[in-house]
Structures are given as C-alpha cells and as structure tokens.
Amino acid sequence: MENRALIIEKILKEVSQEDPEVRDRYLVEFKHEIDEFVGFMADAFMRWRALDSAIGPNKNLGHISAFVYSAITLHILSLKLFLSGHLVAAGNLMRQVVEAMAMALLCSSTSLGVLDKFIIGQYSTQKAIAQVIKHSKKLGLKKEALEDIKRAQLFYHDYSHLSRFTLASHMAFESEGALYVGCSFDEGKIDQYQKEMAGRVGLSRVFPNFIQAVSHNIGIEQTPRNKDRFCKKNQLQNVIFNGVDE
Fold this sequence. Notes:
Number of helices: 12
Largest sheet: none
Number of domains: 1
Mean pLDDT: 86
Number of strands: 0
Low-confidence stretches: 225-235
Radius of gyration: 20 Å
Shape: elongated
Distance between the termini: 45 Å
Helix content: 55-70%
C-alpha cells in the first residue's frame, strides 16, 4: 500500500513533468501516420497564410481567418496531447477543432448571416456542425470532406461528456487491476489508439479542401504551389513533439 508521501510525489510528477517514455511509445507506433498528418497540416498552414494575407485589415473577415487558424492549431495540439498519452483531453479538444472548421465555413457564406450574428453574440457555436452538414452544398464542401466531418462529429461527441471511455481510460487493459494517473500507453488499447490516429489523419486530409472552400466563398481563389507543400513540416513537428515553434 502506497503511503501519502509517495502519492504526493506521483501526483506532483504528473502535473509538473511529461513522460518521455510514454510519448516515445506513441511515436514508434504511429511514425508513418504522424508524418502524413504533419504533411497535410503544413498544406493547411500555407493555405491559411494565403487566406489571411488576402483578407488583410478587414475586421469582419478576420474572424473567419481566426476560426481557420484555431482549427489548425487546435488540431495540432490535440495530436500532441494524444501522443503524450492524454486521450480524454485530446478527444475533447477535437470537438472544438470540428466546431472551428464549421464556424469558418458558415461565416464564409454571406447568405446564411452567421458571421454577423456571431459578432454581436447571437449565434451559438454548438449548432455549427449540424448547420454545416445541412448547408454543405451551398458552402462548397466536397462529399469526401463532408463525410470526414460527419465521422469526426460522431466519433468525438462522447468526449464532450463523461462516458464509459472516460472511465476505461484510467484502467490498464494490459495489466489486470492496475490503474493510471494521468498519461499512459496501454498495449491492450492499441485498437482504440489506431482508430484515434486514423481519425486525426483523416480529418487532416480535409483541411486543404476546407480552407479552399472558405476562400472561394469569400471571393479569394487559392493556387498553392507544390514547392510550398512541406515548407513548414519541421516547425509543425517541433510543436507536436516539443512544444517549440522555431
């Protein structure tokens, strides 16, 4: 039986330090998926930069740029939390990723009037995803992108509330009777980890089309150059692995 001093030591370590051993196990298990994710998010960053530059000082359209940027950065942060062994926190954040994407799309359509309502505080972001699905054709979303957004909405909905998965995240499947405090990598949950990673990579594939649709809706046409494709890859890897944007 652990005494109080040892418990204090373990909790203090959990709240003040990261566990490199846990992260290394994720990095080894999902190296290919991480590289694919980083490539798509590098594309997304380049498209956002072109969008933001074209918008310029327009304050109203600046909200749209902010939503796109939030979606990008939150998606990267969610993967970082996942690779650090914080599955519940990572999944909860994914809900905000999809909502930020939905808000950018809705606000890019002048006919829906969402941007004006949001600016004056009369639009709830909680209904944004359902509205995007309803108006997907008007918003210029490709069928494949819409399906990925739907899947993300369904998969990560339960992370917004206490669920059986929340309880299971604390329990060790690879070692009967053991419990986790904080981060973990559990061989008994590999199937779930693979689903999580596939969902994140799948959504990252949507980002270039998502940003192109937003740009088109506000009258900005993007023609990204191939040579820009991975120009931010190293920086994004630093954010995911180290929390440093060099």
